Amino acid sequence: MSRNHAFDQRNLDWYIDKAVQALVFIGGISAVIFIIGIFLFITKEGIGFLINTLDLQEFFGSPYWEPSDEDAPEYGILALLAGTASVTGLAMLIAIPFSLGTAIYIAEFATGKTREWLKILVELLAAIPSVVWGFIGLTIMNPLIIELFDVPVGLTVLNAGIILGLMAAPIMTSIAEDALKAVPDRYREAAEALGATRWQVVFKTVLPAAKNGLLGAVLLGVGRGFGETMAVLMATGHAVNIPGSVFDSVRALTATIAAELGETAVGSDHYQVLFTIGIFLFLITFLINLTADLIVRGIRNS
Amino acid sequence: MDNHMFAATELNQKNQRTEKLVRLLFILMAGLLILPVLIILFTLVYKGSSILSIDFLFTNPTNGMTEGGIFPALLGTIWLVVVALIVSVPLGIAAAIYLSEYAPDNWGTRLINLAIINLAGVPSIVHALFGLGAFVVFFKFGTSILAASLTLAIMTLPVVIVATRESLQAVPHAFREACWNMGATRWQTIRRVVLPNAVSGILTGVILEVSRSAGETAPIMFTGAVFFSPFLPQGVMDQTMAMSLHLFVVSTQVPNVPENLPYGVALVLIGMVLIMNSISIAFRMHLRGKKKW
Question: Closest-CA residue in chain A for B263?
């Protein structure tokens, strides 16, 4: 023991170093603690109802959402699910071609200043708060849709879908651009050496190589659309309805929580069912993010 | 026929035509993505600028929020953002230092990365439910700036972590090795060499977080922000008004609001956010120009 003592260099700096290591480790695992905490707390508030009162078949299968009815409350989220799905679906129809197109243009065609400016614009676009998007849906898109299509209401699937598409596109663009940039330049050079034009290089070489990353970008866009709250609350018309066309008003899962949580008493059935929706939203987005991450990580490792 | 050897064949010409068409198509797509937003911004400025004045920014709303200014909402947003930053900046920087400087490449680290991705991906309304269940009800903070800011801090934590980690990793590894070889501990290396070289990158991340927090509505709706409050907040246990929620309220909940009022609120909110983001972008570009390695 005493022989080793001479080599023991553990001075104050060594202890400070260890202390800091422990401290930053706490910072590191805080993210894990928070995500578990989120799940535990929303489950804690919603689990009682989920086990005791809720009929899962009614929950997912019934289009009737009347949680504040005193005598016979109904807790069916089918119509809300249809609302969320229709708005997200339309948003993706708009956002996927535009964001992939813009990403390809930025990564493969644009050069110099144009490229820099496009990237800055896309980044600023992504920064616009969702309540401002909702306001735009309410005040600019609404009268525009009424006038253009000669319909009585403009707060519809169409309105929210366009708004959500514009919201999701910038994020999808930057992730897709990252995926395209991750394709090694030697792929492009090899294709060019074989006499391929720029467009052939992009479509036959770069896009297949970046396939997974682009899929990841689309998935993250879907997750984003699924979870968006304020914009869909303000632009959908907020009517419980299974939409028959894009000119119908709908109501989204997220918007339902946002609109009703304030009116419910803590611990009531209505309060708890909103948390149950929250659990459902958490699990869905968790799955989407996990899948997107696995897909993107997959290409990085190979 | 020899002089035609290098002339474009029919296939070449066809390829060139496709090439031009495709290029045009992509420019069009990029343009169509940007254009509506420029039109929208222009409309906001056009309809909202008539109400903007120093008075609008620094007076209270009056007459059932149909007249007057937005001062309590503006001040409330500043409260919420500052308290959120006090929590999330140290935590986020610590997490980034761990991930960039200490974390081994194992399943634990992958778990942390996955948690960060999910923290950013969980819907804002679920963060609101968490904030209500945890901070308002369980920890008994009530609807207060503290509860709302903690919710915001957790939601925006990934912004700080990702930006900080990126700027730490941009510091060349050789800098660290040089320092270790002089006998410095890991922490001495981080404090004297890595952090000073990354500090401006971290600052960009913090500015981005300010902008994110200022614009969020759902997470603060049930945790600390109120539709209307006759008092200005005096401390972290008070409720407050906030810019984002105020825009929602004056555009959907209050009857007989003059048209330019919500446009004015939207303009101030979007102005705050875009200025923050522009500063962050300009800062980043300035840095990129200055880097010597």
Answer: A135
